[in-house]
Specification:
It is a single chain. Strand 6, helix 2 and strand 7 form a beta-alpha-beta unit. The N and C termini lie far apart (about 50 Å). It is globular and about 60 Å long. It has about 240 residues and is α/β, with parallel strands linked by helices. Belongs to the glycosyltransferase 92 family. Keywords: Glycosyltransferase, Membrane, Transferase, Transmembrane, Transmembrane helix. This is Glycosyltransferase family 92 protein.
Length: about 240
């Protein structure tokens, strides 16, 4: 599909002319660089109104801004999410995650308030999914494209998932920086163990085994006090221990 890149300066004043491009592959529209541009938008026509603009992220640096980030799967439904969001983000911050890409389809104002605090602190960005997006579409690919040049490693995680090393004493970020990948080469009757750093450019993905823990308690709708949060967390721990 043909589409137009619309450029705006730091005061949201449009910088003309628009740049004509195509959407390929899915979710990706290559746009030429434009001097002075701070925001960008995509429209069907090269003039007229536009829905919204987003800040331009510099992805030309050889060293990414963040070493380890996380993509949070799209948030749907009316279930209270503020406590799960806080737990999700704070848990993975302990594991060395420095930045979060959060995809939102449905989220009420109360839960969004918590998320906005992380955006203001520079720890997260929120991507609003428009009506045409469904749960079956490829948000993971979009997030991977978004993180390119911005994060060295990015984890794909659902809201109810927690990444935790079980046989490694450090954090996940430390694991990514220190682990060695073992390859075995056979020559005559001898073998050579070749250890390569995980920073090797040919290593693109790591997969981990999952452990399922049932959660049958609903999160509280609104924050009351620390005691309420502590009680909920202790109930979850007890339930986890019983499984």
């Amino acid at each position: 599909d043909t589409i137009h890149c619309r450029y705006f300066n730091h005061r949201w004043k449009e910088i003309t002319p628009a740049y004509r491009t195509v959407v390929f592959p899915e979710f990706t529209a290559p746009c030429a660089r434009r001097e002075g541009a701070k925001y960008i938008s995509l429209t069907d026509r090269h003039f007229g109104s536009y829905e919204f603009s987003v800040p331009i992220t510099d992805r030309t640096n050889q060293v990414p801004t963040y070493y380890f980030s996380a993509c949070l799967a799209p948030l749907y439904g009316a279930e209270p999410k503020w406590l799960l969001l806080a737990e999700f983000i704070e848990h993975h911050k302990i594991q060395g995650v420095k930045y979060f890409y959060v995809y939102v389809n449905e989220l009420d104002e109360y839960n969004r308030t918590l998320l906005d605090d992380y955006v203001r602190s520079g720890e997260a960005e929120v991507i609003i999914l428009r009506e045409r997006f469904t749960k079956d579409e490829r948000q993971w690919q979009e997030c991977l494209t978004r993180a390119r040049g911005h994060s060295r490693w990015v984890a794909m995680i659902d809201l109810d998932e927690r990444l935790t090393p079980t046989e490694y004493s450090g954090t996940l970020s430390e694991y990514l920086q220190s682990v060695k990948i073992k390859r075995i080469f056979f020559y005559i009757f001898k073998h050579l163990l070749w250890f390569r750093s995980i920073s090797n450019q040919t290593i693109a993905e790591l997969s981990f085994r999952q452990q399922w823990i049932l959660r049958n308690e609903s999160a509280p709708e609104k924050y009351v006090n620390k005691g309420q949060v502590g009680l909920y967390m202790s109930m979850c721990l007890c339930l986890s221990g019983e499984q």
